[in-house]
Amino acid sequence: MSLNDTMHLLRAWLRDPRSVGALAPSGPALARLMTAHVDHAHGPVIELGPGTGVFTRALLERGLPGHRLVLVETDPVLASTLAQRYRHARVLRMDAARLGRSSSLFGDERASAVISGLPLLSIPADKVAAIIEGVFERQLQQGGALYQFTYGLRCPVPRALRQRLGLEAERIGGAWLNLPPAWVWRIRRP
Ligand SMILES: C[S@@+](CC[C@H](N)C(=O)[O-])C[C@H]1O[C@@H](n2cnc3c(N)ncnc32)[C@H](O)[C@@H]1O
């Protein structure tokens, strides 16, 4: 994690603390855990709330071609930095809650995985519902999964919402050395 990236995220946090939700980018162990199960042979990938691009880098290092990746980031400064850094990926300066209003971001194809760094615990419940619904109803292919980290012990997608959408959640690991420690959840529709 570079000092430059920490400053980038810190400035974004000062602009909008609730939406950024963290003072420093995630560490490499969490990035590995978040991306370990993504198989790019199965389809393109969407990343929500990439921030400075810690998970983006891990996805590309795992062999995902840049043109098979869409980054959805609401902060305008972070979005333009990402666009300069990851020239082959498509960067959308957009609220992830709008995912359900557009058709698939990949045209006829749907994503095999959605990697989310969104601070779901500090996002209002109706917006969380719009994001999760958009992901599962419009963007993910059947059998695809949403990977979401959280600093809390419970699944950050509320149980009632999971039940309404028929989703199953499984905690797939923890990154104890991350600051703060974080857990990763895989959410799928069986
Ligand atoms: C906790 S930071 C995580 C950044 C990075 N993924 C990491 O782990 O270091 C949350 C990011 O989500 C973005 N974000 C928050 N709400 C969003 C939304 N509704 N749509 C898109 N991006 C959002 C913030 O601007 C910020 O970049």
TrEMBL record:
Q: Which Gene3D superfamilies match?
A: Vaccinia Virus protein VP39 (3.40.50.150)
GO MF, any single term:
methyltransferase activity
- The answer to whether UniProt assigns keyword Oxidoreductase to this entry is no
Q: Which UniProt keywords apply?
A: Methyltransferase, RNA-binding, S-adenosyl-L-methionine, Transferase
Entry's Pfam families? RrnaAD (PF00398)
**Single GO biological process annotation from the record:** methylation
KW Transferase (keyword) present: yes
**Domain of life the protein comes from:** Bacteria
* Name by which UniProt lists this protein: Class I SAM-dependent methyltransferase
* Organism expressing this protein natively: Rhodanobacter lycopersici
